[in-house]
Every structure is written in C-alpha cells, then in structure tokens.
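A reminder from the course coordinator: this example appears on the midterm review sheet, so study it carefully.

Given structure:
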C-alpha cells in the first residue's frame, strides 16, 4: 500500500494555512509548503509565509530554503520536498502538503517530474534572449502554437513559466500539458487525500484578497520589499512574486503607491482565477466550499471529517 499524505490546495487567501495548522494539530502532522515563492528567505510578508509565532510550534518544511535571485526548478523542489515527506513518515507523523502551486503538488504526488534542463544546452538562454527581443506576447503565442493548454493557463507576462514550457517542448518534443496528462495516468508515488478550498460566490475570495493586501501593508510589506529592492535581491524566479515587483515600480518613481497597491490587488485576483482553473481540472480534489468571509471553523470540521473518512487518524 502507498503511503498516505494529506494535501490542501486552493487559490491564494482561501484559508489553506489556517486549515493546515488545525489539521496538523488534530492528526499529529507536519506541514510541507507547496508555494513557489515561500521557498525564498526574506520574502515573508508578501508571500503570506506563516511567522514562527503563527506556526504554533508545528514543524514546517520547504520554507526559507533558497536566496532571492536563486532559480528553482520543479524537479529540484520535488526532490527536496519528497525527502522532507519521507523523514516525516520515519518519525511516525502525517505529512500535510499545503500550497497553491499546482505544479509543485503534482510533482510531489507523482514523483515523475522533468529532470531535463536547457540551461547547459543553451536553449534557455536563447529563449530568454528572444523574450527580451520580441516580448512576452510573441512568446506566449509561440507557446500557444505548440501547447495551447499551457498558453491558456499562463499569463502572457509569466516569463519564467512560458520559457520553461517552450524549453520542455524543444528538449523533448512533448508539450508540458501532455507530460502532465501522462504523469497523472501513472501510478502515483503517494496516496494523496486532497482537499481544496474555494468560495461561492467568488467575490468573497476577492474581498479576502483585498483584506490580505491591506494587512500585509500594515505588517510592513513596503519595508520588506524596499530592503530586498535596495539589495538587488529581486532577481530570477523571485522577481515574479506578486507584491514585490509592483512595489519596485513605486520605489523607482514610476508608479504612485496607491496605484501600485491596486495593481497588487488586481494581479492577486487574476492569479487566484488561474489557480482555480488549474485545481478545478483535478478530479482528485474534494472541495470544501464556503459562502461567508470567515468560515474557518466549518471548514476545519468538514476537512477533519473527510480525512477520517479516508482513513487518516
């Protein structure tokens, strides 16, 4: 029998972190982050990374494992996260994989992510140069010609993921979407009990996102982002983090603060839409839907009942 893990997925600001903490307390678990930006040290407030106090003494893994400016691949994440999960199993605890990066979650469950890289062959550098010369719109349409599913899922400004999808196609002759479909058809490495959180109507989620941005500012997002900007640390993958790149426009005098914050709210809502599109295509997920701004107690009870029903104690 495959080892069972719990998975909590869903869009940004849907309540995944709080639920993961409750379930870790009730099921003697430890949390493995599946967030592509929470891996970076010093990017705490803007990525909604739980603080040491908020973690309530529960062990968290795959937080603060890289420096901003350091590029991380899905395969690198998968390998390190799997090592954390196996260590959690050895200590007799339940691994709880929690986050909104669907590609990371799928890679860990399946254990069969791409190991190929175009960095050494020069393909990636050529694609990056083409992006700089031709722009994101052209590269996005180029991706659409070979992988329309990925193109629909990715924003035209998502430089890193568009280049990666084109790189995979050029290296293997197989689209990233086809690879993902083929991967899902293989026996997974883990028996994943998957929970998803979403609101109905969606406006509730959007209000939660707006409230979260305000709270981030109150907690010191501007100071955190400015310190990283002054150090020149926002490079590579980390430069794509919503919140930091928009505030860089403000620090450089190209955007007033109110406009930058409005852009953060808008991009966060758009990101949530893309996350929902990704996760709603996954029929393994058991959805918990709520219709009030704060339904954490109800969500926790439903999630607890579902995990017990699936044999997790």
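Designed residues:
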């Amino acid at each position: 029998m495959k080892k069972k893990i719990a998975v909590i997925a869903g869009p940004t600001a849907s309540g995944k972190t709080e639920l993961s903490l409750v379930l870790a307390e009730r099921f003697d678990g430890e949390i493995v982050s599946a967030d592509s930006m929470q891996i970076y040290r010093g990017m705490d407030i803007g990525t909604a990374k739980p603080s040491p106090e908020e973690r309530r003494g529960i062990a968290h893994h795959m937080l603060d494992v890289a420096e901003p400016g350091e590029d991380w691949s899905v395969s690198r994440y998968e390998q390190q996260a799997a090592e954390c999960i196996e260590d959690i199993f050895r200590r007799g605890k339940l691994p709880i994989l929690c986050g909104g990066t669907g590609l990371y979650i799928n890679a860990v469950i399946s254990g069969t992510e791409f190991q190929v890289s175009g960095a050494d062959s020069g393909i990636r550098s050529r694609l990056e140069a083409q992006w700089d010369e031709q722009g994101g719109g052209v590269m996005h349409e180029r991706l659409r010609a070979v992988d329309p599913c990925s193109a629909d899922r990715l924003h035209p400004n998502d430089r890193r993921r568009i280049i990666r999808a084109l790189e995979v196609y050029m290296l293997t002759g197989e689209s990233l979407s086809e690879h993902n479909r083929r991967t899902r058809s293989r026996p997974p490495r883990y028996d994943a009990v998957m929970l998803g959180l979403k609101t109905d109507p969606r406006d509730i989620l959007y209000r939660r996102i707006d409230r979260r941005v305000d709270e981030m500012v109150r907690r010191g997002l501007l100071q955190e982002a400015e310190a990283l900007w002054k150090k020149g640390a926002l490079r590579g993958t980390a430069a794509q983090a919503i919140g930091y790149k928009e505030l860089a426009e403000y620090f450089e005098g190209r955007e007033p603060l109110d406009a930058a914050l409005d852009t953060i709210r808008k991009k966060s809502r758009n990101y949530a839409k893309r996350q929902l599109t990704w996760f709603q295509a996954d029929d393994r997920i058991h959805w918990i839907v709520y219709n009030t701004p704060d339904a954490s107690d109800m969500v926790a009870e439903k999630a607890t009942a579902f995990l017990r029903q699936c044999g997790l104690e």
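The two ends are 16 Å apart (CA to CA). The chain has two domains: 4-111+190-309, 123-180.
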